[in-house]
Amino acid sequence: MTTVIEHTHVSVPVGPVRLDGDLNVPAAPRGFVLFAHGSGSSRHSPRNRYVAEVLNRHFLGTLLVDLLTAEEEREDEVTAQLRFDIGLLARRLVGVADWTADQPQAIGHQIGLFGASTGAAAALLAAGQRPKIVKAVVSRGGRPDLAGPGASLVRAPTLLIVGGRDTAVLQMNRDAMTLMKCETELEIVAGATHLFEEPGTLAEVARLAADWFAAHLK
Q: Is the pLDDT of residue 1 over 80?
């Protein structure tokens, strides 16, 4: 049976800026997942859009949002600094989570965060600041180490997915787990490098994420 998805472009007000996003809502959603991109990526990331489509088929609403404005993205293309401003990204993501929780489609549903690369650190910080809103976190090839001590504040069950051949990031994830006090699991995708470009590896990421959110977004 085909899942009917409502696609809406949204403009999310966060402090003095508005952030562009794509909100996808299946009929009778079981929860909502917000995507935090990183390392110069955007809501148009084909990897995250693929994962979002899989989550939609599992009756999870998704919001892919740019945490930087168009002007900031142009600046970041030159300086590559804003993508590592984890505090800024986390504050923006907190604002997006607050906005999502107030939307008619999301009221009564729990929210999860899916973070990639540096966006994973922002997701952890945001989850720590909004324990009543964020109920599950998934990191794909993430840098949870960049969340620093803030990782210890996370209460939402967290799944860390890392490629087996992404050895440096794998060790960073193992180190970050020692700081975390919530339910935390590490899944290693065999044969995958940082971007999960190898055949079948991104599909495995999507399956793991869908199972995690389905189990923890009640």
A: no
